[in-house]
Amino acid sequence: MRAAQDLGDTRGTAPVHSQPATPMNSTPSELRDLLDATLEKVAAPWIVALGLKVVEAGPQQTVLELPVTAQLVHGGGVLCGQAMLAAADTAMVLALTAAEGAFRPMTTVQLQTSFLRPVPADTACLRVVCTVLRKGKSLAFGEIECLTPDGRLAAHATTTYALL
Predict the structure, then answer these.
(1) pLDDT of residue 62
(2) Residue 16: inside a domain, yes or no?
(3) Do residues 35 and 59 make contact, with C-beta atoms less than 8 angstroms apart?
(4) Of 53, 69, 22, 77, nearest in space to 128 by CA
(5) Phi, then psi, of 17 in degrees rounded to 5
(6) Total domain count for the chain?
(7) I need a labelling partner for 71 at 20 to 30 A (CA). Which of 9, 123, 136, 139 fits?
(8) How many helices (H) and strands (E) does the chain have?
(9) Residue 30 is part of a domain; what is its CATH number?
(10) Which is nearest to 49 in space by CA: 80, 83, 15, 23?
(11) Is 34 left (phi over 0), alpha (psi -120 to 50) or beta?
């Protein structure tokens, strides 16, 4: 998956947030607005079409919801892993944007995912919780948990990003 790389392509548009906010001084609502704008402006159209919703945003952790739709369910009657990977990858981009206070070009270096249980087609949404573990000058590390509505872990990912 190259969702983060896709997010780095601003397609000639102005920066999402020209003057970085200070994440520690931003309200959760301001951070959610920043992340919604980032998702809309820099994500590839197919990522936007996933319908990801920012439900919580902070400088260390961001939470998204991925609606489980018929388009994302494969023949086995469960949410496809590719959709979870794309959501996890995008969650990290948004978590780093919240940590920085503005979008910064970045790319996925590594995304290791373990799928622990199927997510049935009749599930309303998947909760995607991304925690920034460490952010340096050129690399960032994160952990993503994909949770069913009852809080059960469906997938776990760790990731490394190059900050460009």
Answers:
(1) 97
(2) no
(3) no
(4) 53
(5) -145, 95
(6) 1
(7) 9
(8) 4, 6
(9) 3.10.129.10
(10) 83
(11) alpha
CA dihedral 94, 96, 109, 116 (to 10 degrees): -60
What's the whole-number average pLDDT of the chain? 90
Could you give the residue ranges of the DSSP H alpha helices within 65-119?
81-100
Length of the chain: 164
Question: What amino acid occupies position 140?
Answer: A
For 55, list phi and psi in degrees, rounded to 5.
Answer: -110, -25
Residue reference for tokens 């892993």? 81
Q: How many CA atoms lie within 13 A of 23 on its CB side?
A: 18
What would the pLDDT profile of 98-119 be if each residue is shown by its tens digit? 999 999 999 999 999 999 999 9
pLDDT in tens, 123-137: 999 999 999 999 999
